[in-house]
């Protein structure tokens, strides 16, 4: 069994303090996620917006958090759904205005219905508004109109928020460096998903359906206290493995197939993201083995570049180098390795990058580049995935000067993906427990 882990109230308070120290005389507004509709009047299970959760730990929809470090009375303000006994009978418990103050540390809380009345007092003395324009245009409009009112009043007041600024640079900087408690949560998400992958490797056999493997894995996620899959689980046998986001998982698996499983779980909203590819009947064909070995070597070469101080592109470039050399050795590509890379002729085989930041979002926030030419350098306590792959779709089309791909290779798709923590000394593979 896994211990229950959480992020404690003091850490949320410390995050807010750190953020407020950076916005000086500004006021920041963060909005919760909305409820999403599955169909008609049925809603999806609620999933909080990650940055909102990062600063508040508050897990309800229809909420707004405001940070006003310069305000004389309230620096942390929450607007939440009020308690409503009748509604709660249907939708479940709400923390309410009192709970938002008592349990979530807000200096003051209001009903979300009071947003338009109460928000201006926290903006009027700010020099700028920190707000990220989100997908909800109506809410964006509400904030923009409020701002516009202050701009119109400027001649008479001679003060007020003259600028609007996206908080992302500050938020990315904070969220991308994980605390010890966050790393513990991610380790837990990694360990639970690792158990599910090991189980899948033990049970998968010809004649089973992809969804049966999926179901077993997801019950392991849930049984160990994960909220569920971090993203729709991909259980892709045979040529389905060549479809990067195959999520139908309906096929009956055949002897001789490879099975690519890309599945991770969300533990307290912190995610794992693991891919393994293995032969369902226990043995690779020579072609499958040749492709698998290249991807495995590419991953190893990439790991070696995951070191603090290294530019973010180095591990991808290392993986590409190994993949292209390997494809040339197999005769699947013809030409000079560096030229093939330069001209991107490998892309029909390997069309995605070698990974992404990982955290509260599966494709987590964080910068990859500063401008066109300068990559972010890796820092201790960042977490990223390393996931090279080779996909030889039955319909693969190479550049004109390249050979026809032999049928023996068509339909083979291999990806291997691990979650890697950057440490002061180098890196730690959080998902190393899953066999390759
Ligand atoms: N499973 C999503 C990804 O690997 O990026
Ligand atoms: Mn990934
Ligand atoms: Mn993945």
Would you give an account of this structure?
The longest helix is centred in the middle third of the chain and has 24 residues, at 180-203. The protein starts with 8 loop residues before the first helix and ends in a 7-residue tail after the last strand. The mean pLDDT is 97. The chain has a 6-stranded mixed β-sheet with strand order 6-5-4-1-7-8. The protein has 436 residues and is α+β, with helices and mostly antiparallel strands. Helices cover 35% and strands 18% of the residues. The protein has 13 helices and 21 strands. The chain has helices at residues 9-23, 50-56, 85-91, 96-102, 115-118, 120-123, 137-157, 168-175, 180-203, 210-223, 286-304, 313-329, 337-342; strands at 26-31, 37-39, 42-43, 64-67, 76-80, 108-111, 128-130, 163-165, 228-229, 234-237, 258-263, 265-267, 270-271, 274-279, 369-370, 374-375, 383-386, 389-392, 412-415, 418-422, 427-429. Strand 15 (369-370) and strand 16 form a beta hairpin. It has 2 domains: 9-174, 3-Layer(aba) Sandwich (Creatine Amidinohydrolase, Chain A, domain 1); 177-429, Creatine Amidinohydrolase (Alpha-Beta Complex), CATH 3.90.230. One manganese (II) ion (MN) binds at residues 273, 356, 385, 387, 417.
């Amino acid at each position: 069994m896994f211990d229950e882990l959480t992020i404690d109230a003091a850490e949320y308070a410390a995050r807010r303090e750190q953020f407020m120290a950076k916005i000086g005389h500004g006021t920041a507004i963060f909005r919760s996620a909305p409820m999403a509709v599955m169909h008609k009047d049925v809603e999806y299970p609620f999933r909080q917006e990650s940055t909102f959760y990062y600063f508040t730990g508050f897990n309800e929809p229809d909420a707004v958090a405001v940070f006003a470090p310069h305000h004389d009375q309230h620096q942390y303000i929450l607007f939440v759904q009020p308690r409503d006994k009748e509604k709660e009978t249907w939708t479940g418990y709400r923390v309410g205005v009192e709970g938002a103050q008592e349990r979530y540390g807000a200096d003051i809380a209001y009903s979300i219905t009071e947003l338009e009345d109460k928000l201006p007092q926290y903006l009027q003395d700010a020099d700028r508004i920190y707000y990220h324009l989100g997908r909800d245009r109506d809410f964006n409009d509400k904030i923009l109109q409020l701002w516009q009112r202050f701009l119109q009043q400027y001649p008479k007041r001679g003060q007020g928020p003259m600028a609007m600024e996206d908080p992302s640079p500050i938020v990315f900087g904070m969220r991308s460096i994980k605390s010890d408690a966050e790393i513990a949560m991610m380790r837990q998400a990694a360990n639970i998903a690792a158990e599910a992958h090991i189980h899948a490797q033990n049970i998968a056999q010809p004649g089973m359906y992809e969804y049966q493997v999926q179901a077993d894995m997801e019950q392991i996620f849930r049984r160990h206290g994960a909220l569920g899959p971090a993203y729709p689980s991909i259980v892709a046998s045979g040529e389905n493995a060549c479809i990067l986001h195959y999520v139908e998982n309906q096929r009956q698996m055949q002897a001789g197939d490879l099975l690519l499983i890309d599945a991770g779980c969300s533990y307290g909203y912190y995610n794992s993201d693991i891919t393994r590819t293995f032969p369902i009947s226990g043995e690779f064909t020579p072609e499958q083995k040749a492709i698998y070995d290249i991807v495995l070597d590419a991953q190893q070469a990439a790991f070696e570049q995951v070191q603090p101080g290294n530019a973010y592109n180095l591990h991808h470039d290392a993986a590409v180098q190994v993949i292209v050399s390997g494809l040339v050795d197999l005769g699947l590509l013809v030409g000079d390795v560096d030229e093939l890379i330069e001209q991107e002729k490998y892309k029909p085989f390997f069309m995605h990058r070698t990974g992404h930041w990982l955290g509260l979002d599966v494709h987590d926030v964080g910068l990859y580049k500063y401008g066109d030419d300068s990559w972010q350098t890796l820092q201790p306590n960042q977490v990223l995935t390393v996931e090279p792959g080779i996909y030889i779709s039955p319909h693969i089309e190479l550049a004109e000067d390249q050979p026809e791909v032999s049928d023996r290779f068509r339909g083979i798709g291999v990806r291997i993906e691990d979650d890697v923590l950057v440490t002061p000394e180098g890196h730690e593979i959080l998902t190393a427990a899953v066999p390759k």
